[in-house]
Amino acid sequence: MGRPREFDADDALQAALELFWRKGYEGTSITDLTDGMGITKPSLYGTFGNKEELFRMALQRYEENYMAFFWKALGQPSARIVALDILHGFANAQTEECNPGGCLGINAAMGCSEAAEAIQKTLIERRQVGQKALARRFERAVREGDLPADCNADDLARYLLTIAQGTAVQASSGAGREELYRLIDIAMKSFPGSN
Amino acid sequence: MGRPREFDADDALQAALELFWRKGYEGTSITDLTDGMGITKPSLYGTFGNKEELFRMALQRYEENYMAFFWKALGQPSARIVALDILHGFANAQTEECNPGGCLGINAAMGCSEAAEAIQKTLIERRQVGQKALARRFERAVREGDLPADCNADDLARYLLTIAQGTAVQASSGAGREELYRLIDIAMKSFPGSN
DNA sequence: GACGTTCTATACCGATCGGTATAGAACGGC
DNA sequence: GCCGTTCTATACCGATCGGTATAGAACGTC
Residue B195 has what pLDDT? Predict the structure, then answer.
């Protein structure tokens, strides 16, 4: 029924994802997208709706394909391993050779015009969802005696994700994986029970 | 000699600085600038050259008026106080009520189009200048016995500025000063000699 | 008070922004 | 082989982008 599309929508979405990752939401123009995805504008709008919807689809793909380590890490048996897996997972994603540097969620809309504020808000919410989930995991660790009773789970979760957000900036500035790993070694000395 | 300008160039630059701080380099349009600065386009171009030059002047003003604590902190007598002053200084600047949230250097051009790559590169360089200066200060501390001999000054400087960059993201996402202060308390547990 | 100078105000520039209308090409169903 | 459908290609839309030309207004100087 109807003419078959001449491109692979999944490949095109991946190309869009990488463009948004590198150049941000507003920094990526429709022409950048059509060129990089290898499709024409009507194909883009017909398949993905519009720029904002395309970005949201790319963001979902990003979370599924690059941030999966985060939710997997929450299942680790000890809080320390949870923390280490998360920091190493972020460092890996931010410095993968074949990826753009840094983090899509940070690069996309840190500062932006009014037109992108809805996207900016979404990205802030996504960060807070992750932070809250990590805090819940640490609360459980406190209840289980895995973390000391006087440990503030919210503060500890915020601390770890602040490190991850900082490494995103570092990676976008050219830092390599080994440097981020050494940084994580230092950061983990703050983790309860390290001394 | 000629008609006197009807606006205060310093006030106008401050207004531009705050716009760039909040909306980033590309997210701030010339119309945003002329509206916010209360001047017309010919006045803007006549006084500040063009958008890029205006941004660079705003960046210089930012470093002088909001980042001065950094260079002052380097003069503190102990490495620990240097580190604390720097982290608190960043947290203060990033959460000042009358300021836009976060950090101009982070908000301005994390992800951007080709047109802003020169700005992006400048901002990366400015971060590295600060990181290198902090590393030199810690090297001195190692020589003076203020930090342990096995302490890697480069890694420690990177760690602290990664925290600062992370708090910039947190502040742009709505975190308050008290939350950042508690985060800094945790981060400082990694600092050599804390236990 | 005419002059050169420096500002401001308006109107305009080509280019690009995100998005779409129109026409034609490629399919399955009948 | 014609039909409805769905894709693609081109050309186009108004709006906005950064930047400027032109004209007039406000000054000090002579």
Answer: 61
